[in-house]
Design a protein that fits this description.
181 residues; mainly alpha; 2 domains
């Protein structure tokens, strides 16, 4: 049984099920001052620890998103620098729905376009990246044509899930494009 007295590291070393991730995330609701320590573990050298920390953050975002809003800059910086697809997936799931910091729009656009185009990245990373690109296009409509061009390729050659997501996004992007024409 997990208790609030357990260290964050000891919690992250345990196998994490969805119910335990929810339980641990709820602990951070009661102790939001500990969230920076959890975020620091995403930069840890142990891949299991980083993945579990990012998963718990994603779960926390689902339950109480406002607790992570003050950490959005750090989360974006981590997603831009991590080598882990698991961490990318978990953090992009958060970033795709949080306010996008203006100073990171260019970097996020470039990296998400790269991840969307490349089959070497996990399908979930590519799907969340497409959603971030859509959100950037909502803020910067002049980028819409470039994003649509790349997403069109996915509708032809992507996995079934990516094809479905890309078709929906193309409809939404075409609405943005019509507004600027």
């Amino acid at each position: 049984m997990v208790t609030p007295e357990d260290s964050i590291l000891s919690l992250l070393q345990r196998p994490v099920s969805k119910s335990e991730a929810t339980f641990v995330a709820n602990m951070f609701i009661d102790h939001p001052d500990k969230i920076p320590e959890l975020i620091d573990y995403i930069k840890f050298n142990d891949l299991k620890i980083t993945m579990r920390a990012s998963w718990i953050l994603g779960t926390l975002w689902e339950i109480e998103p406002q607790l992570l809003r003050n950490h959005q800059y750090t989360l974006v910086q981590i997603v831009l620098s991590t080598e882990s697809d698991s961490v990318r997936r978990n953090l992009l799931r958060i970033i795709e729905t949080m306010p996008l910091p203006d100073e990171f729009l260019g970097s996020l656009f470039d990296i998400c376009l790269k991840w969307t185009k490349s089959e070497q990245f996990a399908i979930a990373v590519r799907a969340f990246s497409m959603q971030v690109l859509y959100r950037i296009c909502c803020l910067e409509p002049d980028l819409t044509s470039e994003v649509m061009e790349q997403i069109n390729l996915i509708t032809e050659f992507g996995s079934p899930g990516l094809k479905h997501r890309s078709k929906k996004l193309l409809i939404d992007l075409s609405k943005i494009k019509k507004k600027i024409e």
